[in-house]
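Morning, I've got a small favour to ask if you have a moment. It would help a lot if you went through both lines with me. I owe you a coffee for this, so here goes:
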Amino acid sequence: MVFLAITPAGLRQAIALSKASPFAIWCGADAIDEAEYKSLRGVDLSRFTYALAGESREVVNGALETIAEHHPNTTIWVEHESAH
């Protein structure tokens, strides 16, 4: 399983969940700043160099294609916030 976090809150939730049962996490550049990303230890986290929050479906689909290249035949869970 791989999780794609779109927001900082989603990333925090994914990191917390991965501590019980480790899995890979990917996120956009806007979910965590570079300094915090570099300081994280014990988390399988990859960070895109571009933002994902509020971006078009095409941008997110491109991110999903990249993740699929790195994790073939693996389910990718995508954070989605429903509109209120």
User: Anything to note?
Assistant: The first strand starts at residue 2 and ends at 5.
